[in-house]
Amino acid sequence: MVRRYLGYDHIPRHHAALVNDFLRDVLAPYLNYHRPCHFPVEKTDAKGRIRKTYPFDKVTTPYLKLKSLDAADQHLRPGVTFEQLDQEALALDDLAAAGTVNEALVALFAEIRRREATVA
Questions:
Q1: What is the pTM of this model?
Q2: What is the DSSP letter of 60?
Q3: CA angle, 38 then 40 then 42, to 5°
Q4: Class of residue 87 by CB neighbours under 10 A (exposed 0-12, middle 13-18, buried 19+)
C-alpha cells in the first residue's frame, strides 16, 4: 500500500524523515481505521484442497476486524484501550480521512520538490 501512494520512484535518504512522518501520522491511521479490506474464508472442497473465498460480508477495516476477535484486548499494547482507539477512529469519517491523506500527500511531495530545488 505504501508504494501505491508514494509511487515506485526512488526517494532520497534525506527525505526519509518526511516520508516516515507521513506514513506514521497520516497513512497508517487511514489504512487501519477507514480503508476496507477483504478477509478470506477458508473452505475445503470435495478433493480436500483448501480454497479461500472473499465474500462481501467479510469486508471490513483492519481495526474492526481486530475488535471482532476473541480476547481482542490481549492484542493491544499495554495502556491502550479500545475506547481510546474508538475516539481516534471516529474522529473523521471515511471520506474526510481519504481527503486528509490526499492533502497530506500533496503537501509531502511539494515539500520534497521544494527541498530538491533548494539543494540544486
A1: 0.86
A2: B
A3: 170
A4: exposed
Q: What's the sign of the alpha-carbon dihedral 87, 89, 94, 98?
A: positive
**Dihedral sign for Cα atoms in the order 27, 2, 11, 102:** negative
Alpha-carbon Rg of the chain, whole angstroms?
A: 19
Q: What is the pLDDT of residues 20-78, one digit of tens each?
A: 999 999 999 999 999 999 999 999 999 999 999 999 999 999 999 999 999 999 999 99
5 Cβ contact list (under 8 Å, min separation 6):
27, 101, 105
| DSSP state string for 39-96 | --EEEE-TTS-EEEE--GGG-B-HHHHHHHSTTGGGGSPTT--HHHHHHHHHSS-HHH
Q: How many CB atoms lie within 10 A of CB 31?
A: 19
